[in-house]
Amino acid sequence: MRRAGAASLVIGAAIVVVALGWWWITYGEVVKYGYLSWREASHCLVLSSDICSLATALCLGSHPRVLVSYWSSALWLGLIAVSASLLLAGHAAAVGQR
Questions:
Q1: Are 80 and 11 in contact (CB under 8 A)?
Q2: Axis crossing angle, helix 38-46 with helix 73-97, rounded to the nearest 10
Q3: If DSSP codes are grouped into helix, strand and coil, which group holds residue 36?
């Protein structure tokens, strides 16, 4: 049980870090060119919208297409994995106290 929790924590944290980096690479340029403010771009971190798609389409020339297609669900998957690891750790601690 502990190994699964630790593995889930490491994998989830890695996914969150990659998602944040992917978002930064994509929307850093969008903000730099004035298509969105940081506040508007931060909404693209957690959900996809037409505004996010339009802003990245306007910014296509500055970086490869693969990086432009940021997938907001990547962040959520990482957060789910981190949460599951914390639940597993809490459950293991509660079972260990009995």
A1: no
A2: 60
A3: coil
Instruction: Please provide residue 53's backbone torsions phi and psi, each rounded to the nearest 5 degrees.
Output: -65, -40
The model's pTM: 0.79
From CA 44, how far away is CA 37, in angstroms rounded? 11
Q: How many residues does the chain have?
A: 98
Q: pLDDT digit string (tens) for 22-51? A: 899 888 888 888 889 999 999 999 998 999
What values do phi and psi take at 68, rounded to 5?
-70, -35
d(CA 43, CA 46): 6
Who's near 44: CB < 8 A, 6+ residues apart? Answer: 23, 27, 36, 51, 52, 55, 70, 72
Q: Which tokens sit at 51?
A: 């505004």
